[in-house]
What we know:
It contains seven helices and twelve strands. By secondary structure, the protein is of the alpha+beta class. The protein has two domains: 2-152, 3-Layer(aba) Sandwich (Glutaredoxin); 172-214, Antioxidant, Horf6, Chain A, domain 2 (2-Layer Sandwich). The protein has a five-stranded mixed sheet with strand order 7-6-5-8-9.
Amino acid sequence: MTEAIAGGTIPRIGDKAPDFTAQTTHGEITFSKWQGGNWAILFSHPADFTPVCSTELVELGRRNHEFDKRGVRLIGVSVDSIHSHLAWVQNLQKITDVRLPFPLIADSNRVVSERYGMLHPGESATVTVRALFYIDPGRTVRAIIYYPLNIGRNVDEILRVADALQTADGNGVACPVNWRPGEKVIVPPPKTEAEVDQRLAASYERLDFYLCKRDL
């Protein structure tokens, strides 16, 4: 199920990530094959050779190793041409000494942007907003973050969400507000009276029977 908007459709959390074949700065890819069995973050930027986008892409490139450690692959997209992408990558390396290690999709035909609902006419009729999709190894959309054109994203938060998703999946828990790795997690709420009794007898940090935290 997707939500229809004027600039395409937005896959919802829990939907299968739309597949596509596209030209990128690393050559032509089919997204599902490129992702393989990894986590992936597909993110859009409004336009090449623009200041906010340049700061974002450089920071993601500088910290790409942190995503690698988590088994997360990054891939960017905008409606610019492949020639613009290639020139911008070279320019960013020249002025910042950072070479982007991840591919950029040249979505001049807007196929990817429309499949992922990245074109919001109320914000801009010509470029993508700052959309970001977390896609798990089973190719399910797990989280979505949108920003307007004039606000750069927070790479620490992008990493934090990746950590939280992987921690929740790997341990059958939930992550509380402002959670960071190493902090206590939330034990899922009980569903039966027997589980309530078990909860009350456990050595959790317990505020009430439905709100308990524990160390991993």
